[in-house]
TrEMBL record:
<keyword id="KW-0732">Signal</keyword>
<protein>
    <submittedName>
        <fullName>DUF4249 domain-containing protein</fullName>
    </submittedName>
</protein>
<dbReference type="InterPro" id="IPR025345">
    <property type="entry name" value="DUF4249"/>
</dbReference>
<feature type="signal peptide">
    <location>
        <begin position="1"/>
        <end position="20"/>
    </location>
</feature>
<dbReference type="Pfam" id="PF14054">
    <property type="entry name" value="DUF4249"/>
</dbReference>
Length: 270
């Protein structure tokens, strides 16, 4: 009889204990000081464009506010100070959004330096610089089918042994405007001076159109992308170490860099 009574009381004790564990806690979050967030990627042969936004608190609207009074200047290697006008637009072919643009075409040569300066009506100022990288050509793009009619992709290039190099590799299916099929950054720490090959799983089918891009990037861009990836992985993960984004600019958040790349489009055929 006592044993039966104990079994009946255990669920009740569990409920009472759980109720005692519930407690409302008020957390005082630190004040968030809004800062300028700048992204500017210089592409050879294309107009100079930038995106200037303002950071917001964790519980505020997910879309960062724009900064219409921001003034953006890019100084070329020749010393020409180019002002980018506030003119928000979306580029459909790539899906990129810009707030400031100029008719000036980026035509810098490897080793040359571009400088960035952004100011606004609140007295905030962001500065940065980028050193133009040489393009690293893709040597070969090949594929092979397995017995299930699925193909893997292999992209190869030669690394320069005389410098420390950083790369971003991306593949898109059909168009650059959609999300990438593959996207990662790496260094030549283990492949210095070697022929490097990036492979994939057996993910592709006959007649798939693939756009393959190899970016030769600066270390500051490599660090920026790596830190953004770490921050995404840590978000909402109680076991991950909090990660801080490594900006390449001073006075705010963001990245100012140039995009030197080689790109090939292939159609998977047997």
């Amino acid at each position: 009889m006592q044993k039966r009574l104990l079994y009946l009381l255990l669920p009740l004790l569990a409920i009472l204990t759980a109720c005692d564990l519930e407690k409302d806690i008020d957390v005082d979050l630190p004040y968030h000081e809004p800062q300028l967030v700048v992204e500017c990627y210089l592409e050879p042969g294309k107009q100079i464009r930038a995106s200037v936004l303002e950071s917001s608190g964790y519980f505020e609207a997910p879309t960062p506010p724009m900064v219409p009074d921001a003034e953006v200047f890019v100084t070329t290697p020749a010393g020409k100070r180019v002002q980018l006008k506030y003119k928000p637009l979306m580029i459909k072919s790539t899906g990129r959004f810009y707030t400031h643009t100029s008719t000036e075409i980026m035509n810098g040569k490897p080793g040359q330096v571009y400088q960035l300066e952004v100011t606004d009506g609140k007295g905030r100022k962001v500065t940065g610089f980028t050193i133009v990288q040489p393009k690293v050509p893709i040597d070969e793009v090949e594929w092979k089918f397995n017995d299930k009619d699925k193909a893997y992709l292999l992209t190869s290039f030669y690394d320069d042994a005389n410098t420390a190099n950083y790369y971003r590799y991306m593949t898109h299916i059909d168009s650059l405007s959609g999300g990438s099929d593959r996207d990662f950054v790496t260094s030549d720490e283990l492949t210095n001076g070697k022929r490097v090959s990036y492979g994939s799983a057996y993910d592709y089918e006959e007649n798939d159109t693939l756009i393959v891009t190899l970016y030769h990037i600066e270390q500051q861009y490599y660090d920026f992308i790596s830190s953004v990836s770490d921050a995404k992985d840590a978000n909402g993960n109680p076991f991950a170490q909090p990660s801080k984004i490594k900006s390449s600019v001073e006075g705010g958040f963001g990245i100012f860099t140039n995009l030197a790349y080689d790109r090939k489009t292939v159609i998977i055929r047997k």
